[in-house]
Automatic annotation (TrEMBL):
Its biological purpose: Also exhibits azoreductase activity. Catalyzes the reductive cleavage of the azo bond in aromatic azo compounds to the corresponding amines.
Catalytic activity of the protein: N,N-dimethyl-1,4-phenylenediamine + anthranilate + 2 NAD(+) = 2-(4-dimethylaminophenyl)diazenylbenzoate + 2 NADH + 2 H(+); 2 a quinone + NADH + H(+) = 2 a 1,4-benzosemiquinone + NAD(+)
Subunit structure: Homodimer.
EC number: 1.6.5.-, 1.7.1.17
Reported cofactor(s): FMN
Domain Flavodoxin-like fold intervals: 7-205
Sequence similarity: Belongs to the azoreductase type 1 family.
SUPFAM superfamilies on file: Flavoproteins (SSF52218)
Species whose genome carries this gene: Corynebacterium pilosum
UniProt-recorded name of the protein: FMN dependent NADH:quinone oxidoreductase
GO molecular function: electron transfer activity; FMN binding; oxidoreductase activity, acting on NAD(P)H as acceptor; oxidoreductase activity, acting on NAD(P)H, quinone or similar compound as acceptor
Length: 210
């Protein structure tokens, strides 16, 4: 993936920075290692807790329904237009990236709500996936790479609902998915530094090889 045309999107799904967040430390480590071997790559970081992420609500649903029924965009309410435009912008940002890195903590066996809202913006029927004549879903972003970085206090063997969800979403859209999961950080606090050191080494290796 070396070359000046590589576009990378790093999705940071944590309100804290790397000095207080292990998952954000993983994100920073991947970014820095990737830049070392891909100096011409254009890296963009999306900090989900610093931007507005539109959730699917009445404005979006009614706006989509109106457009599907033939209504002109200019005839929608200002609120509908604003939300639909922002929603589309996140979809386009995802589509324009060759490599997408999603970094998040495992919270209550799930992903942060901001991350779920962002995932909704990239799951677009007819844009990032489609339904075939048989009704099966088919991803439309084949060739795009998705890296999932996650930090967890417990041990789940990578089978926790959050890790599986991101993996399945990526596969559903047609992405090539890779992941590095740090586990047991709170369950074994005496080994936390050891676990993180090993994790960050795996993150660096992935960043250099992908």
């Amino acid at each position: 993936m070396k070359g000046i045309f590589v576009r990378v999107l790093i999705v940071r799904a944590h309100p804290l920075e790397s000095n207080k967040s292990r998952s954000m430390t993983m994100a920073d480590t991947f970014r820095d290692a990737f830049k070392e071997t891909h100096p011409d790559a254009r890296v963009e970081e999306l900090r989900l807790y610093e931007v507005a992420i539109p959730e699917i609500d009445m404005d979006l649903l009614s706006g989509w329904e109106a457009l599907a029924g033939g209504e002109h965009f200019a005839h929608l309410t200002q609120q509908q237009q604003a939300k639909l435009t922002l929603y589309d912008n996140y979809t386009d940002q995802f589509l324009n990236a060759d490599l997408v890195v999603v970094a998040n903590p495992l919270w209550n066996l799930s992903i942060p709500t901001r991350l779920k809202a962002w995932v909704d913006t990239i799951c677009r029927s007819g844009v990032t996936f489609r339904y075939t004549d048989t009704g099966a879903a088919e991803g439309l972003v084949q060739g795009k790479k998705l890296v999932h970085l996650q930090a967890s206090g417990g041990h789940f063997g990578g089978n926790d609902p959050a890790a599986q969800y991101i993996k399945q979403i990526g596969a559903f859209l047609g992405c090539e998915v890779s992941s590095v999961i740090a586990e047991g950080l709170d369950h074994e606090p005496h080994r936390a530094d050891e676990i993180m050191n090993d994790t960050l080494e795996r993150v660096r290796d992935l960043a250099k090889k992908i």
